[in-house]
Write a structure and sequence with these properties.
3 copies of one chain form a homotrimer. By secondary structure, chain A is an alpha/beta fold. Helix content of chain A is about 45%, strand content about 15%. Chain A is globular, with a radius of gyration of 17 Å. Chains A, B, C: This is Hydroxyethylthiazole kinase.
Amino acid sequence: MTQTTHTIPELPFSIIADELERLRVNTPLVHVMTNEVVQCFTANTLLAIGASPAMVVAREEVAEFATIADALLINVGTVYAERLVAMQIAIDAANAAGTPWVLDPVAVGVLSYRTEAARAMLAQRPAAIRGNGSEILALANALNLCDVTGAGKGVDSTMSSTSALTAAQQLAAATGAIVAVTGATDYITDGAQTWAVPWGHAIMTRVVGTGCALSAVVAAFLADAPNRLNAVAAACAVMAIAGERAMECSDGPGTFVAPFLDALHVIHPTQLRSYSV
Amino acid sequence: MTQTTHTIPELPFSIIADELERLRVNTPLVHVMTNEVVQCFTANTLLAIGASPAMVVAREEVAEFATIADALLINVGTVYAERLVAMQIAIDAANAAGTPWVLDPVAVGVLSYRTEAARAMLAQRPAAIRGNGSEILALANALNLCDVTGAGKGVDSTMSSTSALTAAQQLAAATGAIVAVTGATDYITDGAQTWAVPWGHAIMTRVVGTGCALSAVVAAFLADAPNRLNAVAAACAVMAIAGERAMECSDGPGTFVAPFLDALHVIHPTQLRSYSV
Amino acid sequence: MTQTTHTIPELPFSIIADELERLRVNTPLVHVMTNEVVQCFTANTLLAIGASPAMVVAREEVAEFATIADALLINVGTVYAERLVAMQIAIDAANAAGTPWVLDPVAVGVLSYRTEAARAMLAQRPAAIRGNGSEILALANALNLCDVTGAGKGVDSTMSSTSALTAAQQLAAATGAIVAVTGATDYITDGAQTWAVPWGHAIMTRVVGTGCALSAVVAAFLADAPNRLNAVAAACAVMAIAGERAMECSDGPGTFVAPFLDALHVIHPTQLRSYSV
């Protein structure tokens, strides 16, 4: 039995505040293996929120660093053979060291090489998976959990997050990962329990890397997290709330980025707690 | 017989408006294979203007994606052996599928490896070529169409667009590509007919990637274009006009980028048509 | 005998002004081989200050370009085997041509592969080395000049620049390079003489690439420099002063970048000289 959309509870601000406070104390070191397009924005996002990013990519180095780091992000956006080998080495080392790792299945379902690569990674037990509606449906489909195709338009989703909610819950149950399917409303689920994160702004779909950077922030929140469902949901919430704040002083996608990073830098647990009452 | 500079007509606003309206309806999916420096800015430029960028780079994936995409950009700015193989696979697949592709010959004429690579690509019939004066002269020279060398200073041009106009017209006639040679005034030619685009601002030469991003926008306008000359010229014009607008609220190259992307996002066909009367 | 911290003289504004004036006249062509994260910001930084950046990375091209360029930057932030081969070819060609090159030892001391790679590069006589406290200590340790470890947290320093000052002086004396160890105060030394650069703002540690871009600016100032110690120190000073100016119109790390680049673009020797009197 899965929850239906209208019964999904909204993530409480008190949880967001607690999780953010934990991250700010931990200042987690995040090992980022992401695509060529978003590395700078991802690093600035992690720095702004209070984490410490490091992009280490060589097969000679990733095992050593995945052990040192507090969390690992794997994003297949511009994956190629050599980088995929390094990612698999990093995942194995992270698992051996107990370092949680996040899978961002960019454009999975569109291209067979990365779809197969991501399907194989699911067996390596990611702590979390963050994707748009099309990507989550494609992953669930690759595990024969659903028969919806709904491949994206390149890296963009053609399916709403709501239409992928059941697939997200099934994917979480089948893999043991927390699954975050993001869109107008984000849903974060462990298969049994699900949170809704209804904030954010549509302009974020016109700024490259907001989803990819969110996946890195998910990794940062997962570092030493006592409750992984809450950690992943808080990551989605903080990014969405910062996005809403940034739009208050933006005229479009270009002027969005700078105040978005500033908003991540100043967002404060005490302020978030004041929203709860 | 080629036109002399003073007889080149300015691209009418009505054409820019029509082409932009077509792009906004099409929301073309652009397969971007570009250099390591400008990927983020290129993606944000395409998103701002209303296209859908996807950077797919693996030799295992590019053929599949070049078939799905509406247009392909090949930019040799940071080309190396493995990426060049992938580019050639992508070009072959694009040609087989009828997907138009654009060549941006960054620093061709400066370095022999990329000059030979770009020369070879000309035989694969790009739909368009977009370069600065030095690059267009170097390509024409590589085909023995002219004997001017004028190699750039690294990636920057040492030759004006006007000095490369004849070479651009000869290159277009010899290759069948629309050639855009950009500079203080951009010239866009099919060898027989040529448009001038006199807008823009010199500060854009101090912002990395404005030329590279323009080449991606050229690809976006070429998707399903009934008139390729007008499509390429409109791409140059929209970028130049957005650049002028951005300078109205910028203090220098740093503060240029954000309002430039905003300007691309809001520029509207109706407004452009009002300039024509 | 090395200087103690309290006796290190502050770099005079007259030297900064002279060096900046020289750079603006030279407009040096800088061959940049840097990490995947900071390429765009590095290029924009060099363009803003008045240099001409070119990222050339293929083993087939780097020797040719290192000969054409006025200076070369080697940054090992995201080094991997193929890129390391290309870097070594570029360094050899730069040395053969008399082109000065700069080593930025990102995260050296944290990971053994890059530590060994950077240690080997020291024998190839860089003109300058720019790193944070942890990185400079790690390099000195790799040459058995000191026995402090103090490995960084990923790419971030855990050691102050002051604590690495003696190691910087020893590293300079042992390698013949100008060594810049940067932090709250930057120290620039040739082993015998040392300058202090006390400006800048802590927010720069929350913006990815400020250190990496500084290393590129160091390369730009080193081009044809009659006094390499002054050239490297002036590079650190110009970046720090621009950082202070940017903070006057910034709210956080996001809004820092644009005015920082603008400040680099407008900073003027005449103005700097007026500070000296």
